[in-house]
Automatic annotation (TrEMBL):
InterPro entries: PyrdxlP-dep_Trfase, PyrdxlP-dep_Trfase_major. This is Uncharacterized protein. It comes from the Eukaryota.
Amino acid sequence: MFPKVDESELIKNEFSRLKGICYLDHAGSALYADSQIDNVMKDLKMHLYGNPHSTGDPSATCEKLINNVRFKYVNIVKRMTKELYVYVK
């Protein structure tokens, strides 16, 4: 499903800021990869996002993005509920 990746290369390439630090606090917040930061920065540089509760093109762009995420989330939950059975007394 996923390509085989050398873990040490992945850590070196995606978490360069660790520089030999052992980070164990994944319950509080998981580390974000360098590529995630790069992709978010590219997106923020390319698009203008406004308050989704306001009017105007930047606000409409943000609202559309939020609605797309909501749609994807609902579809994931629908697929999961078809596979999972929860019994409540």
